[in-house]
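Input record (one chain):
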Amino acid sequence: MLASSPSENPAPSGLRGHSADSTPRDPEQAASQPPVSPILARGSEPIAAARGATLRARNWRAEALLRMFENVLEVGERPQDLIVYASLGKAARNWDEACAIAQALLALEENETLVLQSGAAIGVLPMHADAPLVVSAVNNTVGRWATPERFYERAGNGQTIWGGLTAAAWQYIGRQGVLQGTYELLRVIARRHLGGERPEDLRGRWLLTAGLGGMGSAQPISAKMLGLSSITVEVDPARAGRAFAAGAIDLLTGDRDWAFAELRRAQEEDRVIAIGLVGNAADVFSSCLPRGLTPDVVSDQTAAHDPRYGYVPVGYTIDEWVAARESDPESIERAARASITWQVEAMLELQSRGSIVFENGNNLRVQAIEHLGEADAPRINAIPGFMEAYLRPLFARGIGPFRWVCLSGSEKDLRVIDELASRLFPDRPEVARWIELARAHVPPQGLPARSCWLGHGERSRIAGAVNALVADGTLSAPVLFTRDHLDSAGMTHPRIGSERMRDGSDGVTDWPLLDAMLLAAGGADLVAVHSGGGGYSGWMQSAGVSVVADGSAGAARRITRTLDSDTGLGVLRHATAGYPEAIETLAAAGPAGTTGAAKATETARLAHEPDPTERSTNRA
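The corresponding structure, as predicted from the sequence alone:
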């Protein structure tokens, strides 16, 4: 980090470093008043994002990012450790750096850019009014360094973090962030395999899955919204208890006989029920086989991507596991992979008995193959990944997990935007249906927010309309728009978002890097580039974006440029790979499309059509 102490060679004008004590508070004031941001209390008290229309920062763009930083900790799993989700996903490197970041945001001007490196505030550079306020790169390492062992070493030395997909980019909104994705996934499965997606089509059907953490707890909610009952296994009693208290599950037990009996009772009474079962997923999944139980759908959303910190092996209590992973981490990793393999073998057997089985993006299959050897890879990969099997047609059209956050903290503001979204896309009635379901079933977490799968042109349309509502005072404060990194252009992971691409580009990371460049060029308020850590090391690259609708003309321009280029590149990516849905989207946009992105997509399509009269000889 740039030194905050005086230097013999002063920095160029406008360049400044940041550390936790860069802007010290008056000691008497600090003793008598709470900190401007709860982050500055260093985890000694509960963290909640600021609400209302009062600015603490020097502009709404910086204020919005500070509130999102606070919000991911408010809804996170272990905010005292800066852990947001998935065992290791952190919002900042440590508390010193968290404070430095908060202080930098409080002082940031609109013509400056704060630079973050793996969760640390490096410095502030003079820029211009349409430049990003924050650029962030997290744990990006060259190929031979991108190993779990190297990551654990560097993280242990305080040199890096895993930022998850949305933790270090301050875009996580709680379980709702993956709720609609899970709902859409189960909806496609129901339509394709279970006879339909209406509740009457799904009567008596059920889902067996695992994981009730920040993202996993979206599974039983999504299933119930659709009309599927569920049993969700969770090894950590405390985490299961939090999910129950939050309303993610209807019943919670540690008795599997009772859980299966309650499921049968609900089926007989034509009720949909969500049951949480405290136990080990490998053990419970395997126990279905001798019982003759064949769930209709089977998956898993534990943190199996990290065999050291994310998956408790069979035979360990939580306390034993926590102690052993520090004293003998290699042994814990071997035991975890053995248990994961046991679970995967059970899933394969259930698949052979008729269950619809898929991996939900947590490298479950990778860990089993690591344990068994590459010779077993074809057999293990008979379990498909969710994206390749079910959701890619949406991504090919640029449709993915968009979201908005009401910085006012006002549920009234959220209702206004929900109603706007419900009527803005009449050609996609599923949007209005989702908004209706979300308002009825999504438990509130943190700042009022909504996740909504929107596509190319749709995102900029609603964000632009919201910007106008901020400008005319209909909304009481600005609104931040963002998305999951797992999006049409934003992610490469050959076992999740880009598995089995038609053109073999599963592991090509050009797309998220191009995405980040376009987002920065378009003036997004925050642009982040992440790579995997822990068990995801070497497996992924992603780009994230946040843009603030503050009611200004500048915001209107930034919204259109960034959101249209983001989805436009996603359509281009899939058209280049040969997906018909993307090619149709290009054709619909046409050469006279309303955005630059639409024109770019038509240009790309024409570039792939051979000229019948001449061969190009000047392509570089």
